[in-house]
Fold this sequence. Notes:
Layout: H1 4-9, H2 11-21, E1 25-30, E2 33-38, H3 41-50, E3 57-58, H4 63-69, H5 78-88, H6 94-99, H7 101-117, E4 125-126, H8 128-144, H9 151-171, H10 185-210, H11 218-224, H12 236-266, H13 269-279, H14 282-290, H15 297-309, E5 316-319, E6 324-326, E7 329-331, E8 336-339, H16 341-346, H17 388-405, E9 406-410, E10 418-420, E11 424-426, E12 431-436
Parallel strand pairs: 2-8
Antiparallel strand pairs: 1-2, 3-5, 4-12, 5-8, 6-7, 9-12, 10-11
Helix pairs in contact: 4-9, 7-8, 7-17, 8-9, 8-12, 9-10, 10-12, 12-15, 12-17, 13-15, 13-17, 15-17
Amino acid sequence: xxxxxxxxxDPLKWIAQWAEELGGIYTISSPLGTxxxxxxxxxxRQVMVERYSRYQEKSxxxxxxxxxxxxxxxxxxxxxxxxxxxxxxxAFHRKRLEGIFSMMVSRSxxxxxxxxxxxxxxxxxxxxxxxxxxxxxxxxRAMFSTDVEGTAAEVGKYIAMLNxxxxxxxxxxxxxxxxxKFPTPFNAREFAAREALYGIVDGIITERRKAPDGHDDLLAxxxxxxxxxxxxxxxxxxxxxxxxxxxxxxxxxxxNAMCWLLHLVASHPEVEAGLWAExxxxxAAASLSAGNITGLPYTRQVVEESLRLFPTIWSVGRRAGExxxxxGYQIPAGTNVMIPIFHFHWSPEYWDEPMKFDPGRFxxxxxxxxxxxxxxxFGAGARGCIGNQFAIQELVIMTAIFHRHxxxxxxxxxxxxxxxxITLRPKNGMRLRVMMx
Length: 437
Ligand code: HEM
């Protein structure tokens, strides 16, 4: 299996260790192929920003995401991607985020009310599922307004099934070589989940095409978007792939980020005290009711520092479309390139006490500069996250509302283990004691 054996077993350890030992660029090889790991800021910038046009394709590892997202923004490339990005971008405009602010607040309050029912349980409460339900609820409402209540739960069930299947494929990569149409129980289950999910999404799209007026949501924006040059809008298939992409890219990332944040704050009383001081203030209350997060600067720092320690997209990959050279090494066309985001966030070369949870690092006078590129939880360059501001707003609101009403404490003996698969998620879920403040 070559070096990939280790990279697969404990990627966070080995990928970072080899980056230190081998000067920031090296090849991981396995029977399934090779990838060049690029782990210095100037080279990562070269791939993602400066010479991004040479690295338009995503790497082979994104094949598994295609199962979930089809040919949507995350997985597509070239002119097709450019056209789709132009058409979807306006849906994430600042004004539109303000429009869904109060929905994010009210859904977070509803989630807190549910959690409060279990408050005081000494065994702790498993939080990854309720957080995933909350973020799926938020993205569904942002996507389809409130006219599809109940759909979120069903969509969530099928997405969770497909996600599990995708994870199984990643754990057993030989599955990539089996024909997808082969009637194994695995393929049959995946096929049924996908058909059911597509049925729901296609049904909504058909209804909305028939009666497009009176909606103010992401789907309305996608339906009305058209290509500037051709004047054409998205086909039903394109729409479905983009809707699926937003569902998948927009909920698990944020749910996992929130799991890690709650875990970090629960074990850092000084950060919790700082959060309470801000959240209980009149400025915070005014900010939450005015529909912006400007009155919650410390809360935002806590979010940013959590994303540094636990970047839920822990690495990104590209494929060289033409020959290139990185740091004096030849990168022939077709090479898979991997950029391990977590390594930049954790390296002692760039951060003092890198593994310490210190939201003060993101205070205005201490924030990391753009150059060197050492902090990029949302990626960088043209393929950077389209939902970046959506996610920050959502995480700040959830953090403020959760800590305004509840406090969280570690459960003695419960082991928190990061599991880097598609996203960096807690392997055993996240169990914390929940108490009323
Ligand atoms: C904490 C939450 C999130 C994190 C850490 C995150 C991270 C990322 C990263 C690193 C990328 C770049 C992937 C690459 O270079 O291959 C990306 C792309 C993307 N993200 Fe996010 N994301 C988050 C939330 C969201 C949300 C809420 C949405 C949608 C509502 C979203 C939609 C997307 C899309 C569509 C892309 C592909 C953009 C393109 O290639 O044009 N993400 N995200």
